[in-house]
């Protein structure tokens, strides 16, 4: 009986050992079963995040070939600085880093390409956005008046008719139809920050005048020299384009509730120095000229009937040149 009892103990021990081995073997098998544990889903999620990041990088590299990207800091949190100005301005694209609208059972959102030429005013930009079904001019104006960028400063003053005048960088953009006005604005401001570079508000105002008064890089730099020379001499600028800005974009504007005060603030035949703000949205040529004006002693210029700019050091020379080319003063 003792032998039997001993054998039973040995059998029980062997059985227990076998059970433990089987248990360890099964546990190891579970790790190899695809999609069989929470750790598998974590791996899938991590790879998905990697794919999204890579897609964003690829999109940025493709965009850089079109010349519309920059490493400049963003205007608003969540907008990729590598995002092309040809990418629809949607909140969903900002969240994923991709230009593709969110996938759903609904029809994909329609996009529209909008070109903003150099020298367009805020009113013209707002009207063009509305004409292309992006957002209404009034909503865009309302958003622009209340918005403040985070990466650079746009002066906020009641003396300015349009707060964002000058900061809507001329370019070809792609927006969603019925887009959020804030997304549209941030997209344009990011483009300005990337392409205008470091520019002061004073330089931007000068650039807007240059944009309206010159038609080549050489003339842009010379016009810039006249503007700065007159400012340094304490002379009124007396630039026709500033008076035209008030007449065409301020007086009678459907976006402004009161316009009477702006003539004295923008018309440089009336105000002592620069207008209260930019008179259009200048392009790269005018911006560069404002930053790097030509060196000259000119105090006068005009655009003649020969389709050329003419420059003079004295008022007598200026009068004689205007008479020669059939231009009436004032």
Please explain how this structure is put together:
This protein has 330 residues and is mostly helical. The protein is 49% helix and 5% strand. The protein contains twelve helices and four strands, in the order αααβααβααααααββα. It has a two-stranded antiparallel ribbon with strand order 1-2. A two-stranded antiparallel sheet has the order 3-4.
What is the global morphology?
A: elongated
Widest sheet: strand ordering: 1-2
Main beta-sheet annotation: 2 strands, antiparallel
Mean pLDDT: 78
Structural class: mainly alpha
Offer a quick outline of the entry.
By secondary structure, this protein is mostly helical.
Key terms:
330 residues; mainly alpha; two-stranded antiparallel sheet; 49% helix; disordered N terminus
Helix-strand layout with pairing:
Layout: H1 2-30, H2 38-65, H3 91-96, E1 111-115, H4 122-131, H5 137-146, E2 172-176, H6 181-196, H7 201-213, H8 217-232, H9 240-250, H10 262-266, H11 284-291, E3 300-303, E4 309-312, H12 315-324
